[in-house]
Amino acid sequence: APMWKHEAMAFFALLVAALPLLTLASSSMLRAGGGGQPQASGEVVTGLHIGAPTEFQKMSYLLRTIQKYKAVAQDRHTTLETRHQAEEQRIKSAIEQAQAPGAKLALAQTWTSNVQSLKDTERVFDNIEKFSESMASLLSSATSSGYGCEELTCGEHASCTTLSTGPQCVCKEGYMGLEGKDCRAPPEMRPYPLIVGFREVPVQAADMNICVFGLNKVAVVYRDVAQGHAGSVVVGSVRDAGLAALVRPVQFTSGKAYGPVVTGTDSGRLAIVWRDDSRMGSCWMRGAAVGEDLSLSWGDRQSFCTGQAHKMVVVPLPRDRLAVVFSDKAKATLHTPAEKFGNSVLASVGETGELALLGRFRFSDHPVMRLEVTKIAPMAFVLAARAGSAVDDLDQSMSTKQEATAIYAEMIDDDLVFNPNVVNIEPTKAQIWSRGVSLVAPNTIAYAYQDGADRAMKMAVLEVDPLTHKMEVVQRPAVIHDGVSPYVSMLSAPYMAAHPHTLVYYEDQKANRSMVNLCTWSVADKKLSQCEDFPWLDQRLRSVAGAHLGGGRSLLAFAAEPAGEPYYAVFGLSKK
Asked: E strands, 174-280, where?
């Protein structure tokens, strides 16, 4: 009787030991013609398989093998019961015929041992059947829905994923399409009003600018044409769903505010700079402390330059510092000629919103305009500008165009230091107009600009040496759009650092649409690829500004033509 138990135990051990080899065996069998495809009835029709078996074929073969083991175990279990009944009848007859007490006792012990052995052996076979059923159920759930992802070919902007119903093509995040087919970018994002509530005079927003500060706070500034070109700011917080809780707009100046720019510090304080006239304005700066209820406590405004006609840029820095970079000029004196140059101011914002000017720092001896900036480290930033030509001191006939120039700068203690070794992306070309600059990867920036002469939008990529801070063009200018746009702007790190991308937003004047251009940046190959254009709004805009919220989400504040009513929209990106 113990032989039955030993046989069952050996069978179970063989099953468990054989499992790791079944996949290898399935590969060999499938290559020999044992592969197949599932039919409606659930059966598998065998056929010749060329090449390595798929995961689905391996799983199907493994499932059939497990089912065979279960069938053998059930057959052995039935045979065991038949043999036990025969053995039980034989022992009963022997006990009845035995005369000696010792013989009867020995036969009774054999009877007891036989019953116990039967229970142990049945338990082993029960375990084999349960084990086989569990494995079969697991494998069936993996194969019941048909082919695996390796059997599916998904379309553009779609990828395969395993759902409860089996493998299926689905559109990547940020794209729309039914069942993973015809996946495309949304034709337009749903806009939300930037200003809620009744206003007697509708807002006509222009010169919009935006910043993100704190964990999820945003501030939007604009020039309200309907209010005599006064400057206003809207502060709010962005929720996970993309909606923003915004407070009512507050005027930061009762006078005119052209080209307002806003930034937020680490402590949640704001600073706004603007000029009070379109052509010959004075430069102003004002700070504010932001309360928990998003209320603003304003400091006094301060003037720091005159005769301003160009947009200024602001960079937030640690310790509630900020750098304001602008075009400046000096009038002629008895001993010096008039000059135009690039200048900057370092300031700090106090707890109550008061501003303190810490110093002025000239960064260029040439006239500059069309300034843009991006941070590349807590203390460092890269400035993009259109500057006057640099004439060779030794040969006045030799000059270098500086219409697409990049300058590295950083804050050291309470000083701004600008690297004199600037990079000129197009040293022989003129007519470089609007531009944007953004952080792509560590010490890597993208520089997009409008080439007016070629009527094309181009983009180059630069790397900054972390030790010397010298910049080098690693991706020569590449055309990303044919045509002219009134603005070319960029968002830094629009997706995530592990998957570098560039994002340029601009206007397609031919189609009268607002567009986004996305490119993938290869850190290893130092090359842009997979550049695509997507419409995000089917109309032209009077003004637009964007900021990255983190987690692949970005926020755009905009005012459409012709009314100029301000809106905002949040959109997300996914890996290309």
From this structure: 176-178, 181-184, 192-193, 205-213, 217-224, 230-238, 244-246, 250-256, 258-264, 269-275
What is the token pair recorded at 563?
Answer: 């009314």
pTM of the shown model: 0.69
The per-residue DSSP string of 429-450 comes to ---EEEEEEEEEETTEEEEEEE
Residue identified by tokens 């044919």 is: 482
Helices 101-143 and 2-29: crossing angle in degrees, nearest 10, is 20
Residue with tokens 């080209």: 259
At residue 265, what is the residue type? T
Separation between Cα atoms, residue 327 and residue 487, nearest integer Å? 19
3-state secondary structure of 147: coil
Tell me the CA distances in angstroms from 36 to 30, 32, 101, 168, one per residue in order.
8, 11, 66, 20
The pair of three-digit structure tokens given for residue 139, joined into one six-digit string: 């494998």
Place of tokens 């590969």: 27
* pLDDT tens track for 267-315: 999 999 999 999 999 999 999 999 999 999 999 999 999 999 999 999 9
Alpha-carbon gap, residue 462 to 440, rounded angstroms: 10
Q: Are 184 and 165 in contact (CB under 8 A)?
A: no
Q: Which span out of 23-37, 177-191, 441-455, 543-557 was modeled with the highest average pLDDT? A: 441-455
Any idea what DSSP says for residue 75?
Answer: H
Instruction: Tell me the sheet residues that pair with 217.
Output: 213, 237
Among candidate residues 388, 373, 176, 212, the one with its CA nearest the CA of residue 290 = 212
Q: DSSP string covering 53-110, please?
A: PPHHHHHHHHHHHHHHHHHHHHHHHHHHHHHHHHHHHHHHHHHHH--SHHHHHHHHHH
Residue type, 428: T
- Residues linked to residue 463 through DSSP beta bridges, in sequence order: 444, 472
Residue-wise pLDDT tens digits, 350-393: 999 999 999 999 999 999 999 999 999 999 999 999 999 998 87
Residue 202: which residues within 8 A CB-CB, separation 6 or more?
226, 563, 565
- What is the residue whose two structure tokens read 């006064």? 230
Give the pLDDT confidence score for residue 549 in this predicted structure.
86
Angle at 393 between CA 387 and CA 398, to 5 degrees: 70
- Residue 106 pLDDT: 75
**3-class SS at 356?**
strand
Residue with tokens 């909606």: 243
Buried b (16+ CB within 10 A) or exposed e, 164-177: eebbbbbbbebbeb
Dihedral (C-alpha) 65, 70, 74, 79: value to the nearest 10 degrees? 50
Provide the CA 96 distance to its chain's centre, in angstroms. Answer: 85
Cβ pair 293, 245 in contact under 8 A: no
Distance of CA 320 to the CA centre of its chain: 28
Using one digit for the tens of pLDDT, what is the confidence trace for 462-483?
Answer: 999 999 999 999 999 999 999 9
Read off the tokens for 472.
Answer: 């080098």
Yes or no: say if 25 and 34 are a contact pair by the CB < 8 Å rule. Answer: no
